[in-house]
Amino acid sequence: MSDQDILVLFKNGQREKAFKKLYHLYPRIEKLVLSKGGSKDDASDVFQEALIILNRNLETSNFKLTSSFYTYLYSVSRFVWSDLQKSHTKQQLQELNTQEVQVFQEVIEEKNYQLAEHAFLEIGKRCQQLLQLFYHQAMSFKDIAKVMQFKSSKIAKNQKYKCLQKAKDIYQTKLKSVQS
Amino acid sequence: METYTQYIELINDYLNNLLSKEARVDFETKLQNDTAFNTIYQEHIVFVNGIERIEIKYDIQKAKRTYHTEKWIKISGISILVIGVLVMLYTLVFNTSKMEPTPNSDSLNTIIIDSTSNKKISSKTFVDSTKVNEIETKSEHEIRYTTTTIYEKFGGTSSTDLEIKKHPQTISFNTQKDTTITCKEGTVLKITKGSFINPKTGKTVTGKVDIKVTEYYKLSDILLANLSTVSNDRQLETGGMLYIEATQGDIKLELKDDKSIDISFPTKNKKTGMQLFSGEWKDENINWKLQTDDVLENLDISEEHIEELVEVPFSVVEEVPIFPGCEDEVSNEAIKKCTSDAISKFIRKKFNTDVGLGLGLTGRQRINSIFKIDTEGNIIFIQSRASHPRLSEEVDRIVALLPKMIPGKQRGRAVIVPYSLPINFDILEDEELSKRFGSTTVRDTSLTGSLISSESVEMDTIYTSNRGSIEFIREVMHDKDFPVDSLFINEWEQYKTQKLIRSINIETKPNYIESAIVLRKPLIEMDGSKFKILEDDSITRGGHIIRVPWDKAQVPSSSRGYKLVPKPIFQAGSKMVTGKAFEARLGDVADNTISSRDVGYYALRTSNLGWINCDRFINGRTTRIKYKLKIKNAEGASVNMVFKSLNSALPSWYTNDVYDFQTVGANEDVVLVAIKRKDGKLYYDMVETKTKSNPQIDFDFKEVTIEQLKKAIENIKS
Fold this sequence. Notes:
Helices cover 77% and strands 0% of the residues of chain A.
C-alpha cells in the first residue's frame, strides 16, 4: 500500500481504513518513543496524537504532504513526545527550520484542542451527546429534539448553548491552570 | 448572553458556509475589528476542533483494533500452519514403523487395466502409459535407473521408504452406476456399473466401493516411489503411473472379466504412440511390460480442447455466468434470473434513448444484440443489429460496458456462454413529440371519426385548409356563431374524457343511422360551461341532450385544423439541431463537430429515402453476399448504399478502413453514395454498381453544396 493509496483512502472518506494502513508504521514510531525513555502506552498516545494532527492537516485544503507518511509522522511524533516531556530548550527551538516550526505550532495548537476535548468530557453525558449530534452528525435541532426527546427544537437549541457555555467555562479554567 | 448565542449561531453558519457573500465579508471584517468577537470565534474554533478529536480518536481506536486483530490472525495463522506441519512430520516418522510396505515381487500380482484388457484387478495394479523411446535421454521425463541405485534405495530400511511414499487418494462410489472419477492430478477413470467382483464369492459387488488411486506424474513422485521406467532394458518415457486398488470393507475387489476401466492421463503436451504397460517387480526393481498393441489415445487431451472451445448458450448452460452481485442467490435458476435481470437493467439504465431522435424512426425499435461471456467472464464478440446503425452502435457501446462476470460452467469447466439480448424501445410518435416540444397543438376533435381530419405540418408552416374543431363544436351546438376559443376547446376535450360528451349512433329515420352527440345533464347545469341549449332544439333522454350535428354546410368553414409536428432534427456532433441550423453550420470551416457521417445521414434523410436494415436480406430469396468496401482516400467519409428498387438506403459500418455493409442481396442495382465533409466544404461521389463480392470501387470526390448534394440524391430515385 503506497502513500498515494492511503491518500486516496483519506480523500474518499475511508478514514478508518487509512488509519489502519498507517498503523503499520506504528512499530517504528514505538521504537522511537521507547528509545527516548517512554513507555508503550506513551508511544501509543504519541502515535495517536500524530495521526490526529495528520488528519487535521489533510482536511485543510492547502496542505501538501511533501515527504512520506512515515517521515511526517516521525517528525510530528518527535515533537509530541518532546513537548510531553517539556524537554525542548530555547536553543533547540531556534534551530528549527520553517517546516519544523510549522509542525511544532501544530503540536502546540493540538494541545489546546486536547484541553477543549477534556473540558468537553467533563460536562454531563447528555450534554456531550447533544453537542456531538450537533457538531458531528450536523443534525438539525428538530432532529436532535426528536432523538434526545426534548419537547421542542427550541429547547434543544437552548440546551445546546448552555452545554457549550459550560464546556467553555471548564476549558477556560483549565487553560488558566495550565498557563499559570 | 443573548448576543453570545447570536454570535455562536453566526459562527456556526460561517463555518458551515451558510452565509451569503456579503454576510461573509461582514463577518470577516467584524473578526478583524472586534476583539471580543474574535476571542469568541477563536475559542469556538478550538472547541469545535476539540469535539472533533473525539470522533477522530474513535476512528483511530477502531483502526488500531482491526490492525492488531489482523496482525494477530496472521501470526496465529502462520503458527498453526507451522504446528500442523510439525505434527504431520511427527506422525509420519512415528507411524512408519507400524506400516508394512514390502514391495515384494511375490506379493505383487501384476495386473493391468486398460480399455481393452480383460485382466483382473487384484490387490495391486500398476498402470503406466509410456512411450517407447530409445535410450537417449531427451527430456527430464526420461529417467534411467541403474539397478544398483534402485537396489540401494530399495534396500534401505522400509521405514524411510514409506516416509516418502505418496498417499493414495480414496474415492467412494456406487457400483450400480457408471462412474467417472477425476483424480487430484487429473487422471480420469471411467468405471462402468457392476465392474467389480468379490474374488472370494465370485459375485458382482453392489453398493459402495472405495477406490484408492495413487498418481505418479511428477518426476519426484516417481523417484520417491521407487518406480522406474525400464521395459526389458529399454528406456521408456512415462506419461504417468497409477496405482489403483478397489476395496469394499476389508475385501479387495477384482475387475470382472468382461469389464474394463477407461483411463485418461492428463498429459499436457500430446505425445503420440503412448501405450499401456503393466508393472512387474523383478529383482526388486519394477519392469514394465507392454501389455497391448493398441495405442492408447490420450482421450482427455482432445476432450480438454473441445471443452475449452465449447460454447453453451445461456439458457442451457449448467452454471450460468454470474453478474456481480448475484453470487448470493441460492439456486442456479435464481442466479440465472438475477443475472439476466441485471443485464437488462444495466442496458436500460445506460441506453441513451436520444440516439433514436432525428433518425426518422418512430415507434417501437427492436435491437438484437448477441455477445459472449468468455471463460474469464469478459464480454467478447459483441454484435448488434438494429434498424439504424446509430442504434446498434449505441447498444454495442453499452454492452461493452458490462462488468466482468463470473464465467459460466459446464461440467465444472468454464465455458464460453453466448447471450442474446433483445432490446425494445419506443421512439415517441409525432404527436407525442409535438407535446414534448411544447408546441401549441390544436388537436383534431372529430367526435364522429371522419368528420374532420387534420394534416401534419411542420411547426412553423402556415397551413390553409380543413375544418377544425371550432366548426365541429358549432355543428354540434347548432349555432354558427357559437363562441369557441382555445380555452373552450380544451374544456371540450376534458368533458370528452370525463364522458360528459359522448358520440353515439342513433336511428334518426327508419333504417337511417346517424352519428349523434350526447351532452350530459351535469354539463348543462355546470356553471360557466357555456352549454345552454334551448329545449326545443333538443331530444331529451334522461335529462341529457342528444343531438345530431348540423350538416357541415350549415356551418361556414372559417378556421383551420392543425396538427403540428416538430421539424425533423439532425445530429450535429453530440447535439441535435434543425435542418436549417444544420445546413448553416455546414459551411463553417471552424465547426468540426459535424462529421461526414452526420452529413450523410442528413442528405439521405432529407431526400425521403427510407432506411433499410441489412437484416432484411437475411431471409430474402436472393443470394446473399457480404459486402465490404475498402476506400483509399476515405478520410472518414460516410458511405451509404442506395437501393434503387427498394428506394431505401443502407448505411455502412466503418471499422479499420473498411466500410462494411454486412449482408446484402447479390446483383442488386445500387448507388454507392460517399459523402465527406472537410474544412467546412462538402465532397461527394456516387457510383452506380451491382452488388457483388469483393467490390473494387474508387471514389472521385467532387466538391458540392448541400443543395446540389440533395438534388443529386433525389435524382437517384428516378
